Amino acid sequence: MLETAIILAKIWGVLLTLVTLAAIMTWVERKQSAVMQDRLGANRADVFGLRIIGLFQPMADGIKMFFKEDFVPPKGDKFLHTLAPIVAFFPAVVIFAVVPFGDVLRIGTLEIPLQVARLNIGYLFILAFGGLTIYGTVLAGWSSNNKYSLLGGLRAAAQMISYEVCVGLSLVGLIMVFGTLQLDLMVKQQGELIFGFLPAWGIFYQPLGFLLFFPAVIAETKRVPFDLPEGESEIIGYYTEYSGLRFGLFYFAEFIEIIVMSALFSTLFFGGYQVPYLYADGFVFPWGGSWNLPHLVVVLLQLGSFFIKIAFFCWLQVLIRWTLPRFRYDQLMRLCWTGILPLAVLNILITGGILLLIKG
Amino acid sequence: MEAIFFIILSVVAIFSGLMVILKKNPISSILFLILALFTTAALYVMLAAPFIAAVQIIVYAGAIMVLFLFVIMLLNLNRIDEGRSTVLKTLGVIVAGTMLVVAAVVLRSVAIPADSAFLRGVGEDYGTVETFGRSMFTTYLLPFEIASFLLLAAIIGAVVLAKKKLD
């Protein structure tokens, strides 16, 4: 009974945190783009004159979407038109289930692993559900019965299936280094030190792997510079025929994807919840000296470190989105098949060779 | 609990399998096929084979079905022609019926060895990526290598075909 309650609490906690963060992200994107373009940005929404730098904007957006006309194209497929945003939303949230957001929380004799699901297949689970996001886009494009939507859906299918290969292959090196697919075990290993002072984060083992994984994942989220399926200035894209909350779900899924991908970058390459030199009983510095901390403080520090890393990568993704122009279609495909893919294979070969030399 | 999940999943799997062949619209057929693959993957998870389940979703539901959908959307095949010849239909029924009979006979004659995992129950690490990989590269090395050669041949074939069209 208690175990079920804990699992449910974790599921709801993660879900609510994700949704809240996504709502804040919609504001962050507007505000950050405004700052980058020397504007003031979304700062008008207020409650009784209280503005708190525009943080009420997500609520105003939500209310607006609730009251917009819910339009279904009369000649399209009504059922699939409704299903598509749900299909786009679901995998983005589910992926977070295997991401550990902290080590073990001890309350008395109770040990709670701070992760929704400890799966042996870990990263494969992410790949499996990440691959399903395509359907949301493709079905939206097809069921709208609109040429531009269909074009967007087709572009999305071609783009995402190409970059899925890159996402899978660019991470093989990291899996070889850690010898596991389980994300919590990967993060545990990243708590150790290389040469006695450098935290053993994935980026130090696999710098090339990260450089390949990062653009491939951003391409999977279909944001600028990889936003050809949407292509606001040419075809408007797969959600041309969506309005109200159905569109809102697509919009929201995109921001949840940003957060989940940031969580993945930090979990796989930047030590996840690990703080450098922080162990289960406190800090032990490589230059000597230690600082004992109670268990709860350690857990909170780990959670904080994880959130700071996520915030950093969210910021970086928004920065990239508002800096680069859109790729041309041939450039997009060339980057994947002749740029990232051969380098990913090379990375696997080099990693394998080095591991063979070290471990024999 | 397990029985309930098994029944739900199998009913959905069989129903969607039937809908794949009964639906007139190819897009719905594909979507039901995806559902069938998905529920089969869930059944694999229940059989303590999470790796197979993940691969099933990645390869079939995530990649191959997307290409199916892509091609059908590109060709805009909204409706399959009704006027199929009756010869083809009868031939199809005969072939499928024979397959069913053969499969039934073979499956009936399979004896379950007394020391099989099916009767013994399985250990904690059964079906994990580690055990799966180990048996693939030791016991089943030859079939694995042969399968990879087949895939390599298929890849080279695809490149050759595509190149001829480009030149």
Low-confidence blocks of residues of chain B: none
Number of strands of chain A: 7
Largest sheet of chain B: none
So what's the overall shape of chain B? globular
The total count of helices of chain A amounts to: 12
Helix content of chain A: 55-70%
Number of strands of chain B: 0
* Beta-strand proportion of chain B: under 5%
The strand order across the widest sheet of chain A is 5-6-7
Largest sheet of chain A: 3 strands, antiparallel
In helices, the fraction of residues of chain B equals over 70%
Please describe the structure with a list of short key phrases separated by commas or semicolons.
heterodimer; A: 360 residues; mainly alpha; three-stranded antiparallel β-sheet; two-stranded antiparallel ribbon; 12 helices; 6% strand; globular; B: 167 residues; Four Helix Bundle (Hemerythrin (Met), subunit A); 2 domains
Describe the structure.
The complex is a heterodimer of chains A (360) and B (167). Chain A is mainly α. Chain A has one domain. In chain A, 62% of the residues lie in helices and 6% in strands. Chain A has helices at 2-36, 57-67, 78-94, 122-143, 147-170, 172-178, 183-189, 202-205, 207-220, 244-269, 295-321, 329-359; strands at 104-107, 110-113, 193-194, 198-199, 278-279, 282-284, 290-292. In chain A, helix 1 runs parallel beside helix 11, helix 3 packs parallel to helix 10 and helix 9 (207-220) packs antiparallel against helix 10. Chain A is globular. Chain B is mainly α and 167 residues long. In chain B, 78% of the residues lie in helices and 0% in strands. Chain B contains seven helices and no strands. In chain B, helix 1 (2-22) runs antiparallel to helix 2 (26-46) and helix 2 runs antiparallel to helix 3. Chain B is globular, with a radius of gyration of 20 Å. Chain B starts with a helix and ends with a helix. Classes of the chains: A mainly alpha (360), B mainly alpha (167). The A-B interface holds A 77, 80, 119-121, 124-125, 127-132, 134-135, 138-139, 141-142, 150, 153-154, 157-158, 160-161, 164, 168, 181 and B 27, 31, 34, 50-51, 53-55, 57-58, 61-63, 66-67, 69-70, 73-74, 128-130.
